[in-house]
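F.,

This is the one I mentioned.
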């Protein structure tokens, strides 16, 4: 069940909201149990065969949290979680076999969320929680499929608050607005860019210069609006229940350097990698060379977190290299106008192996971006062929292609929004208040999204 589906919007969500607030009126934790069961139902809707796996993981880690004061028990419990993750996600990659194991949806998110909880219990930064609250913390349906990566210190106190179960007009006004903006990012922008990106990244496509640039740029913005759209929808949905999820995006393509990018992109994952990988490895405490090693190891593991393939290892390695160069160069010059476009291009080039099915395709696309595969121009310029003949030797010939439809205008709009528009949290910061004009705008935007949902597309990050 996807957030951008009619079954979710007009059946699941109204029933869950109504039951949650009705049960909360009677006191106790019945509404917490209801939301936990509804979240488990949401997960089972994807594939009921994996529901016992999620339940077993919750029960095991709930018990383990009570005994991990011992380092031996912590090592055992974290080892069990990692073995489970490796068996489903990395078995083919580690063994070289082709068992075609079906990946349980969201397994990376609920595994790493629980590992962080166990580590903090060992450090005495957290204590064992009641099973109902813990089950909701792990399975909470707004975040379960594609994040954000939750931290117990942000969520557990909210589930325990009495006022969480009370409906508030402000929560609905903000929550519905944020949800609709996220839905628009997904259905009106990201899904419209997919037809531009998919053909370029197909195995054996061998795109040419303009095709490659259009396709890579399209994926760069498709991924951002798809994932930030999901995060907005998750934050908006959670706000309806009176629960605040952490922010996950802060205009990452406006970043002035690669460290700034990682402070803005998938912020909850960046926090997890910093707190539970980079800092335990030593961080920057033992000199520059150790820092560079720790940065590279962190990003390589961050790449593998996204998937079991060499393409993700290369993507993580590129970002590790970027961070090493940035830290070595930092302080050597003042901020300049080219910092943002240079950072954006570096990130865009790294998205190539992230999206490509294999390293050969990624290398071919990189070559196409450099003009090594020839030049493809729109049919609309074919009448200028005599004047453009001088380009043929430089690009190994010219091919004529179709570049019509809504894709290119949507790509231009996506770029303008990503670079110049305020992000969601900026829209609702300060003294935002709902108004009749705002309600009409959101209603119109929601209707536009509904008319675009005839072809439901899965969220890109649900596969990670």
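My design for it:
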């Amino acid at each position: 069940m996807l957030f951008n589906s009619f079954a979710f919007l007009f059946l699941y969500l109204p029933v869950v909201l109504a039951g949650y607030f009705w049960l909360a009126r009677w006191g106790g934790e019945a509404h917490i149990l209801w939301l936990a069961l509804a979240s488990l139902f949401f997960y089972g809707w994807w594939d009921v065969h994996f529901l016992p796996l999620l339940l077993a993981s919750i029960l095991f880690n709930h018990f383990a949290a009570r005994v991990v004061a011992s380092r031996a028990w912590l090592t055992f419990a974290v080892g069990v979680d990692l073995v489970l993750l490796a068996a489903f996600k990395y078995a083919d990659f580690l063994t070289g076999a082709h068992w075609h194991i079906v990946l349980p949806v969201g397994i990376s998110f609920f595994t790493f969320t629980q590992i962080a909880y166990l580590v903090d219990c060992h450090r005495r930064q957290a204590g064992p929680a009641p099973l109902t609250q813990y089950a909701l913390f792990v399975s909470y349906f707004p975040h379960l499929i594609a994040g954000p990566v939750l931290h117990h210190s942000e969520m557990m106190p909210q589930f325990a608050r009495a006022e969480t179960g009370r409906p508030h007009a402000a929560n609905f006004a903000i929550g519905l607005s944020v949800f609709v903006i996220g839905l628009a990012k997904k259905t009106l922008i990201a899904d419209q860019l997919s037809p531009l990106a998919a053909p370029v990244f197909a195995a054996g496509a061998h795109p040419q210069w303009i095709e490659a640039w259009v396709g890579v740029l399209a994926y760069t913005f498709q991924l951002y609006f798809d994932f930030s759209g999901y995060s907005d929808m998750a934050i908006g949905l959670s706000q309806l229940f009176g629960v605040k999820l952490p922010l996950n995006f802060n205009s990452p393509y406006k970043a002035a350097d690669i460290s700034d990018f990682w402070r803005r992109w998938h912020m909850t994952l960046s926090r997890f990698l910093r707190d539970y990988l980079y800092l335990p490895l030593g961080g920057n405490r033992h000199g520059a060379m150790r820092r560079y090693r720790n940065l590279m190891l962190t990003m390589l593991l961050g790449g593998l977190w996204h998937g079991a393939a060499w393409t993700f290892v290369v993507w993580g390695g590129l970002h590790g290299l970027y961070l090493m160069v940035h830290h070595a160069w930092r302080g050597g010059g003042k901020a300049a106008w080219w910092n943002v476009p240079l950072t954006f291009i570096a990130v865009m080039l790294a998205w190539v192996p992230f999206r490509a099915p294999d390293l050969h395709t990624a290398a071919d696309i990189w070559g196409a971006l450099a003009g090594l595969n020839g030049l493809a121009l729109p049919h609309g310029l074919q009448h200028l062929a005599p004047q453009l003949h001088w380009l043929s030797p430089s690009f190994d010939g010219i091919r004529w292609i179709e570049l019509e439809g809504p894709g290119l205008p949507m790509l231009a709009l996506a770029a303008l929004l990503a670079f110049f528009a305020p992000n969601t949290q900026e829209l609702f910061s300060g003294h935002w208040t709902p108004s009749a004009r705002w309600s009409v705008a959101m209603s119109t935007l929601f209707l536009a999204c509904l008319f675009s949902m005839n072809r439901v597309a899965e969220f890109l990050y649900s596969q990670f």
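The longest helix spans residues 169-201.

Talk soon.
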